[in-house]
Amino acid sequence: MQTQIPELIPCIVSGGAGTRLWPVSRQAFPKPFIRLADDQSLLQKAFLRAARLPGVKRVMIITNQQAQLRTLDECRAVNAGGLALELLLEPEGRNTAPALAAAAADLLEREPAANPLLLALPADHLIADEAAFAAAVEKAARLAGDGRIVVFGLKPSRAETGFGYIEAGAAIGADGQEVARFVEKPDHAAAEGYLAGGRHLWNSGMFCFSAAALCEELAEHAPDVLAAVRDCLAHSPASQSADHRLRALERERFGRCPDISIDYAVMERTRAAAVVRCELGWSDIGNWDSLAEQFPADADGNRVSGDALLRDSHDCFIQSRGRLIAMLGVDNLAVVDTPDALLVADRGRSQEVRELARRLQDQNHPAWRLHLSSQRPWGHYTVLADSERYKIKRIVVKPGASLSLQMHHHRSEHWIVVSGTAMVTHGQEERLLHTNESTFIPAGETHRLSNPGLIDLVLIEVQSGEYLGEDDIVRFADDYGRSEAAP
Amino acid sequence: MQTQIPELIPCIVSGGAGTRLWPVSRQAFPKPFIRLADDQSLLQKAFLRAARLPGVKRVMIITNQQAQLRTLDECRAVNAGGLALELLLEPEGRNTAPALAAAAADLLEREPAANPLLLALPADHLIADEAAFAAAVEKAARLAGDGRIVVFGLKPSRAETGFGYIEAGAAIGADGQEVARFVEKPDHAAAEGYLAGGRHLWNSGMFCFSAAALCEELAEHAPDVLAAVRDCLAHSPASQSADHRLRALERERFGRCPDISIDYAVMERTRAAAVVRCELGWSDIGNWDSLAEQFPADADGNRVSGDALLRDSHDCFIQSRGRLIAMLGVDNLAVVDTPDALLVADRGRSQEVRELARRLQDQNHPAWRLHLSSQRPWGHYTVLADSERYKIKRIVVKPGASLSLQMHHHRSEHWIVVSGTAMVTHGQEERLLHTNESTFIPAGETHRLSNPGLIDLVLIEVQSGEYLGEDDIVRFADDYGRSEAAP
After folding, report:
1. Where is each Mannose-6-phosphate isomerase type II C-terminal domain found (chains A, B) (predicted)?
2. Which of A346, A415, A436 to mutate to test the interface with B (most CBs of B within 10 A)?
C-alpha cells in the first residue's frame, strides 16, 4: 500500500473512423468529431468528462497526426479551466497497445519518480451518469495505485452480441474484482445467459493503471510492443507551446509496432488485472441507431434533428442541417443528410452502413474522403459551389492567422469580406480590406491573406478560370511549414 | 360534309400545379416544367408532339401569366421548325371550360371564315406511341370537321379508380363512336368491370372540335361561360412579337367566368359528342410512381436518376441532382432530392404527397413556393448560399438582355464574370467586364447589368450587408415594365 496519492491523468484515445456513422463521419472527419444535439462533439464531451474529475490538472490525448488541428481547436473551445493539454500524435492507427504503451512510456520517461496513474478513455463514448463515473474512477485509481491494471466493466443492459465481455471473479476489497476471464463477442444465447447471470460485464475499453505497472506488464507479456514503442519515442522529440505539449511519433518506427489491442497484449495475460463493476448510462454511439437514442422521441417514436415534415411515419430518425426532409408513410428509417451525401437506411441494419462506406472507399468517392468543409492551420473553409468554370468557398481565418504567400497559374481569385478585416498582400503591395469590400487577384500574381484583427475574418472566395484544382498552388512562404519554394 | 380541310391548331393547356410531384413541382414551378430523364420538360414533349402532327403551322398555349417567360423559353428551345406561337395568358386558373372557350372565341373572332379545328392537349401527359396518336388525331379531325365535339377515349390498361370513364356507344362511320355516357371515377369493382367489359374508356382530357362548334355548344349549354369569356376577350388586347402572339386575359373579367370543366359545361350535355377510341402508351405522370415508370429498372427493380449507392434495396425510385444518395435495406421507397427539400415516401402512397404539399402551403414554407432557382425576364438566377451576412447567386443574363437600373439601400453587390461579357453601369460610368474580372457596387449606388454579347453572361453575385431581402430594391428604369420610380 502506498501513502501518497499519485496524479491521475486522463488519457483520451481519440481514434476510430466511425464508418458506421457515414455520411457524417468521413476519412478526414472521424467519429470523435461528430456533434450531438447540444452541438458538442464526442471528443469535447470526453474532454469535459475527464476535466471534471477531481484533481485533474492535465489531459493527454492520443490521436492521429491529421487530426491535430481540429483536436486542439475542439479541446480549447471547452477548456475553460485552462488544463494543460498533452498530445501524442500517431502517424497511423496501430491499435490500443502501442498507443497506451507510448503514453505510459512517455510519462515514465519524463516523470520516473512520480509514476502517475493513467485513465484511458475512448473519445467516442457517452456517459450519462457522471457521478457514477467519478465514483468508479476513484475505485479504479485505488486499485491502480496498488499496481493493478484495471478495466471498467459495465453492467449489461441488453443481450448485446457486438461487445466483448468480462467474467468477474473474487472480490478485491470493496473496490473491484479479479478478472476470471475475458470473453469474445458471444452469440445471442450466450449473451442472454450473461445478462441473466449477473457475473458478466461489458468490456468498456476504459482502463486505469500506473505508467510503471503498464510498462512492467508489457515487458513481461508483450516485450516487442514495449521495445518498438521505446525505440519510436527515442526518435520522436516533443515540443511545448503556450497551452499544449506535442509529441509526434516517428512514422517509420511507429509503423514497426505490432498492431495489437491492449486486451490481447496485456489484459488477457496479466495476473494484475482487476475489474471495476459500474453502471454509467454508457453508450458507444456505434451506429445511427445508438446515436438516435440521444434525441427525444415524439409520440410516433420519431426522433428529429432539423427541419422535417412527417406524415404517417413512425420510429424514424432524421438528421438534417438546413434542408427540409419530408417523410410519407415510412417506418423505422434512419435518414441522415449532409450537403453532399444522404443516407436512407433501415434502422435495424445500421451496422451495415460500414459496408456502404467501404464501397465508397473502393470507389475513392469524394463523399467518403471528406466533407465540403475542411480544417486548415489558419482556420477552415467550406465549398459552397463547385462548377466547371468557378468554385466558391466561404473562408474563415482565425485572428492573427495567415494563409501562405502563394500564386496560382490558372485561376483568378476574388475575395469579398463579409465579416472582420483582411490584410491582403498583392505582389509588393499590402492593403486592408474591410467588411463589404472586395479585391481581385489575377492568375499569376503572388498574394497572401491574413487576419490582422481580433475577431474571425469571414470572406467569400470566388475562383474563376479554366482549371480549379487544389493542386494549382505555388507556396513561397508559410507559417505552418508547408512552403515548397523560396520566393 | 365539307370539302376543304380546315387548319388543325394544337392548343396546349398548360395548367396543373402537380402538388403530388413536390418537391420538384412548386407553386412557381408547376408540373409542365418538370424534366424527365432526357432533360426535356413535359411541356416541351407536349409541344413537340403537337408540332410533329402533319400540317401543323402554329401552336396555341393556354397558361398562367406567371408562367409566360418560362413557357416561351421552353417552347423556343425545341421549336426547330419555327412554328408560330400563340399564348393565351390566364391571370388565374378557372378550369378547362373558360380556357377552351377563350381559345375558340379568340380564333373565331380573328378568323371567322376559316373556322379552324382546335386540338386541346394537356401539357402534362406523356404519349409513347406517336403514330397511334397521329392516327387518332386524324380520325378526330374528320369528326370535328363534321361539327362533332370529340374526346379521345383511352383503352384502359388497369382497373384505375382515379380517372373518369366514357362509355362508348354506336359507331360513327369508321372514325369514332357516340358517347353513351360519361362515368365519374368508379370504385374498384366497377373499374374491374370496365376493364373486362371493353365498352369503357378513360377520359383522356384531350379534345378536338372546330372553334365554331364549341362556341355553338357553349351558347346552348353554358351560355354564362361563353358570355363571360367574350366579355373578357373584348377587354384583353393582343400583341404580336417576332415569334409569338400574346393575349393576356383581363384579370377581373376572367375572374367572373364560372369555374367549370369542359366535361361538365359541354361534353355531358351536347348531342354532338363523339369519342375516338385509342391506345397511345399514355401516362398522365400524376405522381412519383407514374414518373418513376419513365426510368428503366435494374435487376432489383430500382430506378435511379443521379448518383446513388444501393445495398439490399429493391423497387425504389431515386432522383437526385448532384448529391450522392445511399440506400440500405429499404424497399419500395421514392426518394426525390432537390437543393432545399427532400422527399422520402412509400411508393404505394405517392398520391398523398399532395397532402404534404398542402401542409407546407399552410405553413407558407419556402420549399412549397419556389425553388432556389428563379426565372426572370432577362434570364435566371440560382441562390447558391444564403446566410445572415451574405447571399450568393449565380446569375445568367441572356444575350442582349438587361436587368433594371437599380439601387439598394442596405447591401453592396460584388459581381464576378465567369463566362461571357458584362456591361456594367456604375453611377454615370459604363464599362465592360470580361470573363474572370469583377466589380463592386457599394450600397446606395445606382447600377445596371447588361449582356451586350452573343452568348449567355454567367456571373456570381455576392451580396453583403446587414439586410439582404429581395425587397431592398429601388428600380429607376426597366426593360420589362417593372420600374416604380423615375431616375
Report:
1. 367-478
2. A436
Contacts with A436 from chain B: Cβ below 8 Å: 412, 442-443, 464-465
**CB < 8 Å to B339, chain A:** 323
Identify which of A330, A339, A385 has the shortest CB distance to residue B333.
A330
As a whole number of angstroms, the distance between CA B143 and CA A40 comes to 74
Nearest CA in chain A to B309: A356
Contact criterion met (CB < 8 Å) for A333 and B330: yes
Asked if the Cβ–Cβ distance from A346 to B330 is below 8 Å, we say: yes
Of A322, A353, A367, the CB nearest to B328: A353
Q: Which residues of A touch B414 (CB under 8 A)?
A: 414, 416, 438
- Asked if B377 and B450 count as a contact pair (C-beta separation under 8 A), the reply is no
Q: Are A176 and A139 in contact (CB under 8 A)?
A: yes
- Are B329 and A344 in contact (CB < 8 Å)? no
Which chain A residue shows the shortest CA-CA distance from B348? A329
Burial state string for B124-155 with b = 16 or more CB within 10 A and e = fewer than 16: bbbbeeeeebeebbebbbbbbbbebbbbbbbe
Q: Which residue has the cell 362556341?
A: B215
Nearest residue in B to A306, CA atom: B341
- CA-CA distance, A149 to A206, in Å (whole number)? 11
Each residue's pLDDT, cut to its tens digit, for chain A (487 residues) gives 445 679 999 999 998 778 899 999 988 888 999 988 788 999 999 999 999 999 999 999 999 998 888 899 899 999 999 999 999 999 988 899 999 999 999 999 999 889 999 999 999 899 999 999 999 999 999 999 999 999 999 999 999 998 999 999 999 999 999 999 999 999 999 999 999 999 999 999 999 999 999 999 999 999 999 999 999 999 999 999 988 999 999 999 999 999 999 999 999 999 999 999 999 999 988 899 988 988 999 999 999 999 999 999 999 999 998 899 999 999 999 999 998 999 999 999 988 999 999 999 999 998 888 888 887 889 989 888 888 888 999 999 999 999 888 889 888 899 999 899 999 998 788 999 998 888 888 888 999 999 999 999 999 999 988 888 888 888 888 777 765 443 3
Three-class DSSP category at B371: coil
In terms of CATH architecture, what is B8-283? Answer: Alpha-Beta Complex (3.90)
Give just the sign of the alpha carbon dihedral B416, B422, B426, B430: positive
Q: Do B352 and A329 touch (CB under 8 A)?
A: yes
Question: Which of chain B's residues have a Cβ under 8 Å away from the Cβ of A412?
Answer: 436
Task: Give all strands of the β-sheet with A379-386 in edge-to-edge order.
Answer: A373-376, A379-386, A390-397, A457-465, A411-419, A438-441
Q: Which positions in chain A touch B456 (Cβ < 8 Å)?
A: none
Superfamily of domain A373-477: Jelly Rolls (2.60.120.10)
B420 to chain A: nearest residue by CA? Answer: A389
Give the whole-angstrom CA distance, residue A346 versus residue A353: 10
Judge: B359–A309 Cβ closer than 8 Å, yes or no.
yes
The reply to whether B373-477 shares the fold of B8-283 is: no
The domains of chain B are located at: 8-283, 295-363, 373-477
Distance CA A82, CA B425 (A): 55
Assigned C-alpha cell, A7: 496524479
Chain A residues closer than 8 Å to B389 by CB: 418-419, 458
Judge: A462–B462 Cβ closer than 8 Å, yes or no: yes
Q: Which residues of B452-468 are buried (b: 16+ CB within 10 A; e: fewer)?
A: bbeeebbbbbbbbbeeb
Beta bridge partners of B151: B207, B275
Rounded to an integer, what distance in angstroms lies between the CA atom of residue B213 and that of residue B118? 10
Tell me the C-alpha to C-alpha distance, in Å, between residue A340 and each of A32, A383, B22, B203, B322: 20, 10, 21, 44, 8
CA–CA dist B312, A349 (Å, integer): 10
